[in-house]
Amino acid sequence: MIPGSNKDHPSFLKSFSYAMEGFVTAVKTERNIKVMLVAGVCTVIAGCIVELDIAEWATVIICCGLVIHGELCNTAMEAIVDLATQELHPLAKRAKDIAAASVYVLSITAAIVGLLVFAHALDFI
């Protein structure tokens, strides 16, 4: 597709299939996506066990979604950097490290929110 034009713009369903293809590719090729998905499934199972209320579920689902989103963005940014340069350039390293740090910060934040939600659900706070 030519940038800025509607020529050969894929249909909504085709765009959706591209997104699913990207997600499947990430799951197949990226270890951290698998780890985040397993953590999300474990969190959902734990939420079922402790019977989270609707607000707690919303909070947990938003956090899980944000962490997966962050990891997908990090993976895409790493691929773009790899496409732009094959050499070990300090700016390429910096871009990749900062993208990874953003997922790290988001994951720590989600873990803290998760601890608060589950502590509240178990009447610890």
Automatic annotation (TrEMBL):
Entry GO CC: plasma membrane
Keyword Phosphoprotein: no
Binding site for ATP: 18, 30, 78, 87-89, 96-97
Keyword check for Nucleotide-binding: yes
Active site feature: 71 (proton acceptor)
Pfam families assigned to the protein according to its UniProt record, in alphabetical order: DAGK_prokar (PF01219)
Principal location listed in the UniProt entry: membrane
Membrane topology: Multi-pass membrane protein
Protein localization: Cell membrane
InterPro entries documented for this protein: DAGK, DAGK_sf, UDPK
Gene Ontology BP, a term: phospholipid biosynthetic process
One example GO MF annotation: ATP binding
Family membership noted in the UniProt record: Belongs to the bacterial diacylglycerol kinase family.
Protein name per UniProt: Diacylglycerol kinase family protein
